[in-house]
Amino acid sequence: MSSESGGDGPKPAGCQVLAAESGKGAQTAPFAGDRAGESLDGEDRRWMRHALALAERAAAMGEVPVGAVLIREGEVLGEGWNCPIATHDPSAHAEIRALRDAGSRVGNYRLPGATLYVTLEPCPMCASALVHARVARVVFGTRDPKGGACGSVFDLLPPDQRFNHRLECQGEVMAEECGDILRRFFQQRRLTHAQETLTAPEGLAADNLLMRLKNPHHAGRFLGKVSDAKVSDAKVDTEGSKT
Ligand code: ZN
Which element (helix H / strand E) includes 135? Predict the structure, then answer.
């Protein structure tokens, strides 16, 4: 399974895309409040970088690197990073953990006026939780063509008339950076898996084998001969879930 994030192809319906990120002259979304689009774009990038730093924590734990941060009035309300494996909790997505962190800090399960920044398009579970929490705005990085609920697969955000809460949804902010961390993670995981499971063919020195595996081009050709594993650095692969 694979996907390409931040590409130039047709954008799924649903979320708005920042012109600065699309590079195709897309219309900048109408923003609430009296902030100019440019300053909000800068603020969005600032907090998306924060979410990326949280995603690195997930990667360090061997979890799919997704990070999320909730902001209200310029202050951090809650932070989260993906860790369902370590916590034995299928709901431990970055967005859910950020919501729980924020709810605990402010003493309220409703978080009106808050903006959630998350590096990957929310799944249906997280999209619904954001509606329940009455979050005002969601900004995500790269799209998830395998399970995204903001137009890529499902159309839960922005909410349709059947929800009793409206929230703004903005997609593909720093999409390249947010996709890169996933690409690196899955590439490294494939290499590690290959190194652990493959044995060197007779006569091939271990350091020679390692060199081949670290080169995606050579590794792909090499692995194709000795196993079903394929190495590619060309696509984002979210592997169907965040676990
Ligand atoms: Zn989720």
Answer: none
